[in-house]
Known about the structure:
By secondary structure, the chain is of the alpha+beta class. The chain contains 74 helices and 28 strands. The strands form eleven sheets. It has a six-stranded antiparallel β-sheet. Helix 6 (83-100) crosses helix 7 and helix 10 runs parallel beside helix 17 (397-405).
Amino acid sequence: MAAAAAAAAVGGPQPPQAEMPAPGLALDKAATAAHLKAALSRPDNRAGAEELQALLERVLSAERPLAAAADGEEAAAAGGGGGPGAAEEEALEWCKCLLAGGGGYDEFCAAVRAYDPAALCGLVWTANFVAYRCRTCGISPCMSLCAECFHQGDHTGHDFNMFRSQAGGACDCGDSNVMRESGFCKRHQIKSSSNIPCVPKDLLMMSEFVLPRFIFCLIQYLREGYNEPAADVPSEKDLNKVLQLLEPQISFLEDLTKMGGAMRSVLTQVLTNQQSYKDLTSGLGENAYARKSHEKYLIALKSSGLTYPEDKLVYGIQEPSAGTSTLAVQGFAGATGTLGQLDSSDEEDQDGSQGLGKRKRVKLSSNTKDQSIMDVLKHKSFLEELLFWTIKYEFPQKMVTFLLNMLPDQEYKVAFTKTFVQHYAFIMKTLKKSHESDTMSNRIVHISVQLFSNEELARQVTEECQLLDIMVTVLLYMMESCLIKSELQDEENSLHVVVNCGEALLKNNTYWPLVSDFINILSHQSVAKRFLEDHGLLVTWMNFVSFFQGMNLNKRELNEHVEFESQTYYAAFAAELEACAQPMWGLLSHCKIRETQEYTRNVVRYCLEALQDWFDAINFVDEPAPNQVTFHLPLHRYYAMFLSKAVKCQELDLDSVLPDQEMLMKLMIHPLQIQASLAEIHSNMWVRNGLQIKGQAMTYVQSHFCNSMIDPDIYLLQVCASRLDPDYFISSVFERFKVVDLLTMASQHQNTVLDAEHERSMLEGALTFLVILLSLRLHLGMSDDEILRAEMVAQLCMNDRTHSSLLDLIPENPNPKSGIIPGSYSFESVLSAVADFKAPVFEPGGSMQQGMYTPKAEVWDHEFDPVMVILRTVYRRDVQSAMDRYTAFLKQSGKFPGNPWPPYKKRTPLHPSYKGLMRLLHCKTLHIVLFTLLYKILMDHQNLSEHVLCMVLYLIELGLENSAEEESDEEASVGGPERCHDSWFPGSNLVLNMRHFINYVRVRVPETAPEVKRDSPASTSSDSLGSLQNSGTAQVFSLVAERRKKFQEIINRSSSEANQVVRPKTSNKWSAPGSAPQLTTAILEIKESILSLLIKLHHKLSGKQNSYYPPWLDDIEILIQPEIPKYSHGDGITAVERILLKAALQSRMNKRIIEEICRKVTPPVPPKKITAAEKKTLDKEERRQKARERQQKLLAEFASRQKSFMETAMDVDSPESDIPMEITTAEPQVSEAVYDCVICGQSGPSSEDRPTGLVVLLQASSVLGQCRDNVEPKKLPITEEEQIYPWDTCAAVHDVRLSLLQRYFKDSSCLLAVSIGWEGGVYVQTCGHTLHIDCHKSYMESLRNDQVLQGFSVDKGEFTCPLCRQFANSVLPCYPGSNVENNLWQRPSNKSIQDLIKEVEELQGRPGAFPVSISSETNLSKEMESVMKDIKNTTQKKYRDYSKTPGSPDNDFLFMYSVARTNLELELIHRGGNLCSGGASTAGKRSCLNQLFHVLALHMRLYSIDSEYNPWRKLTQLLEEMNSQLGNEEQQSEVPILYHDVTSLLLIQILMMPQPLRKDHFTCIVKVLFTLLYTQGLVALSVKCSEEDRSAWKHTGALKKNTCDAEKSYEVLLSFVVRELSKGKLYHEEGTQECATISPVAWSPESTEKYLQDFCLPFLRITSLLQHHLFGEDLPSCQEEEEFSVLSSCLGLLPTFYQTEHPFISASCLDWPVPAFDIISQWCFEINSFTERHAEQGKALLLQESRWKLPHLLQLPENYNTIFQYYHRKTCSVCTKVPKDPAVCLVCGTFVCLKGLCCKQQSYCECVLHSQNCGAGTGIFLLINASVIIIIRGHRFCLWGSVYLDAHGEEDRDLRRGKPLYICKERYKVLEQQWISHTFDHINKRWGPHYNGL
């Protein structure tokens, strides 16, 4: 109807009715369009324009469709039942017609495309798209390429990877701002725009008129459809409905963008033109609808908490009150303002302007005008309003794609970026409220990453639109909604607020799009400079960071276990890393050079101010509150990292950026608290807080966090330590770690703050921390490469690592945009320097290894650094693992046999700024602690460990290494003031203090302590004892008092302000008065120095008196070159020796004193050498004595055992000895086979009542069916052309043959002429263990009742062998009877072949001649039947039933002998397809063929073959009535004997005989069948060769026919065959098929002989295997060329007198039972009578392929990418969709949908179905998207692993890393081997049920 009206308006012909036919309509539109275009092209086009406007008004009015539902009449008018959709389609049709200006729309599109100058790809993709990223070509780290551009560019040797897009993206090919031009693909290598013709004006003229109306119409729809969601639930459904209706419109726009540059620039004009926007959307004018629409728009703006600053001159509307537009930004200053409204986040969401009203607001820096970033939006163009609605509708995918598709247009890009920035605050508001924040986040980042990765753009927007201000403000705004009061330190009065980590905003990571954009823009130098220069921004930013300072506070639970373990800690760590640390690293990357000093000063200044505010807010003075810890101190870390950078890169003077002493003391408190808490957590003192606190401790040091958390903390402590008074620092450490009370000389003490069981580990923690603090050089002078090397060595020492896990574990700079890329050049070079690559290997168990890196020997020797390992271990066990590996290395290399201590490693020199750190090692407090601990260890006080000693020695050694310049030997005169505070040590230099003797110490001890009992010496006597070095008074020392005194001094010194609060000493905090027993003072006599303690320790450790002997007395050289390798590895003794040597080196005085001590301690002893020798002899004697005693004891034991063994063995074996003599009468005495039952442990024979069985696994197998006849391996198809057709597989060929026979011959006879089981044959394998069948039943019962989740299903009869745990599902009964059938049945008989033939026939005819009569139901026969049932049920019905009459007995008969055939053929394949290797097979011991044969034979004899039809007679007798068969043509005849499969005949004959079979009967059957086989070979040969060859043979053979050996000459026989068959039509009508059958070579005698041997070999192999299993004979091994002769003589076909000199002729094996020529002519007659009618088929049946190659899996391409690119987008042939999880079968190459419901049939998903059809229940699939192989076996499946590895020998499951993968041939071979040998079930351990869902 709209069309009619429009036509009328234009004045065209009026259509007769509304429902006119469509074609007319189209014509009509075209005419109108052409008319308008012409009108508009005139110079005066006002009339045309008006006409067009009127038309568009009508066509594109948004009034109708969405309102249609409200107004029934209109709906009917709009096209009857068509509903709203019809009118919109109509409008679109009009638009297309108008744009094309009357031409065809498609031609128009093509025309516009021709003018596309775009040199950018700009392809936009959505989530899950596979794209590439090349780091070598990328300028921005976000750069990405679509697959097409990537493959068309040249990236060989680059560092690239493939990835699955998370949020979507766009291709950057052609954009030189983002990537280097060298990486552009062929299509986008900068086209110069000169060669692109200019766009003709009239081509796009209509577009310029039509599109503004179209876009306006779209905006009206969006306004119309949006209803502000109700307060509680947003009406997402309604929004989606609107979007669905608009789908075609948005798609139309998207198609326009794809027309190329010309159309894009028109669109840009339309979208950014402010005038047309104003004209169309002003909402004034007569159109009521437009007015209504404008009102809706204003309402939407208001409801979003935004104001529209209207211009009252244009609209006569009252100006809104001035307050709204000048809202101050809601900043926040933590210190002041009431916190009453902290939980007002709900109101705030609805009413953004008041929720924060009561907090103090902070104005942002000057350049934010008074208008509020958060609250004002004004739209001036279509683009702006479109983006507004895109946000309102929460970023519909289609809209996002449209907006991004426009980006290649440069003008648009700038406009859009500005618009995006303008709406930034609004976007984040919407995001915060969104319920689908994840999807929305992805879509936002999808857009922003395209805009902000471009430095030029980012800079422009920063300058013009205050991007930085907006971002920081919005971030602040976001976090302000979830602040809570901080409880750190002073709970009541704290004014600090922190974010609440439990809030959704943090928990769901909703802030990440914001933070990610912020990090992205800070990666651009120009933007970062603006940020670092802008003081206002820095203040705001520090304000923001302080919200995270002290978040997620943990309070130690002291009584109850916490009832609810909060898991919010991960949100806190993620927030600090992403919102604080990553921007910090981004900024740091721009502070690399001297010129940027100013920036660092700025950051440090505002950071310190923020810290000072924080200390004030939490009311901090000098002591941290006990039992609480927060791991989050981002302000401290900012400060630390900028300090480090300043010293390392900018040559700043450290002191110029450090605060005063008091601030330093405050700064060190909280990081130190964290270190102490770590020790507490590892000592299990926080155990009542649950597991999550351990989680926090681990995350804090974990590789992704450590360099933003623990490293800056330790660095900050190092800085503080280097500037503070060392005594103060050391005492603070021990106080924080709560071990002050432990540091006493007394043997007993009282610790008021720590339980005894934690003391030891806390002491270890304190010392370890000191060692780390003093040895770590990460920020104190190491270069980047040294750091990388140290990190790598530490990780490799803990464990061998794969390349990817190393990349992951090395703490890289966590800001992805900072340009240090994992996998960079230095990483690889350092790796190759420190580690060796261990290629991936297979372990025998089948578990697959990855390629690993392991440390080189010299790394263990020189670089193993225990300190670094301790710092970097997440689990304590890794430290142990590193020490174990170190121990193993020392043992292996013979460097040290015992248990070594962690080695002492030389450090990189300190940067001069941090020299003060070493004062810690030379302060009296530390020396007192070391002295006390050495003394305590020597005296064996409790709670001290080897670890403590190790760390004490380490600290002493550090002190010696870092002592002041060489001291002069004259004693340094001790200054006055130094002595005042204690008289322990004279100075502070460790080298001096080591030799200082301490005589008496006064200690405070509990009254109960042993020290109290002794009389303390009177003070007078003590004076007289005073020696030179000691002033004699007893020493008293209290760490805490020391620390307080120092603190007081510092505060007084710095308190220029008088009102400085001094905190009273709160000693009661630590010990409640009255609780502890009274302490009294005792005085201990010590008389030791550190040196003497060390020497005594040496004696103690070595367990010998006087063990220490100064080495320089023997070898003066030692003092000259001190670096002695013998001291570098070893245990505590070595360490003590090393320290003493260093002490002696540093001062002659020490050397003298050491010698003195050694002389004093020991009475003079004779020279040392003798003692050692004596010791040796003593030791030897003792050892010998012990060994003698041991030996005697063992001998006695053996004797007694042997005796009992002989007693038991005699009864059984006594009769054995006389067997050889009575061989003739020995029949009854053949010993029965004895079996052990692995369940009950008894052994005995298998009897009818209590049969024993073999544990077997029955499985259907189609491996045989996969044999092919050509050598060329099949490849996996990787292009459309390559296809795999299964016509040449063994299974297909046998299938065709059987169906051909069934067409022409009698069914029952056909089923005896072939074998089945090539597909779905039943393979039986065993682990060789036996059990009683009744025991097995009870075992199965117990499994059934066992509720443990097993990997198998007991209901299906599955179990694991009780002994070896191999998977099994049935038990094969062992046939009772002799074990040694050999002597009885294998005697050579002298009977003639004729007699034997008769015997065979008689035996076959005699039913049930079994020792076990079938009629009587014994247990054994029942079991035999049940196992037969199992065998039948193992395979599907379609693989058993081949007869035309279902259920016929012939079918079962065929199935049973085929089972035997399948097992023999498979064993042959396992042996490599031939028997050259001979010997018992590897499966020989484990073969169950013998038992299987008994079971099959028992059942086959139930079906007796009618003797009329028994093929045996046809083989061994001449039948008279040849002609009778010709008469009855209509009856189907039997299969001619020459069409029979000889191997099948063999199995039928043998299974029809009574068991056990006699050897001579077996040989006889083989001989007879060989004659048939040989004849078949001759016939096939005669058919294969040409007419001339045939006549030549006919002639030569006829000549020799009468010689004596005629029946054994192939020439005679061949010519006879040819003559006989020429009578029939077999050789006729060859004209058509000649070329196919003839082989081009002329047949020489040699080639004929070779052909015949090859033809017969498969039969001989199977027969020899059968003989080997039935009679237990070994197979001889041989060369490949003599296999035929060896096997035939082994089978008894070759006469024994046969000489092997002259060339071997296969015919000599023939032994004709009846005259050859007669029987051959009888056989040929059958063929001729068949070929009379069916010559073609007759010939086909004769040519059977006997030489099958071994089965193989498909050959895979070298590079995984070739598979991936072809298959991951390939459509499934069944459901024609692209599968979500594509997979491909590695056996046949079929492409399937894994888990796809689309291809499900009768509840079976496609992979399971395919595994049944292709592999009879076994499927091997390669999952394309994951690169792993999955195995389906019956109802179970398992992930096998991947056969594609990357360059470092690693799998990449799910292609997460996306590095190029290459085939690992060894793995693929293993997979193929497991498939062929059917061992998937045994080797792979992790199976699960798949419930048919794969």
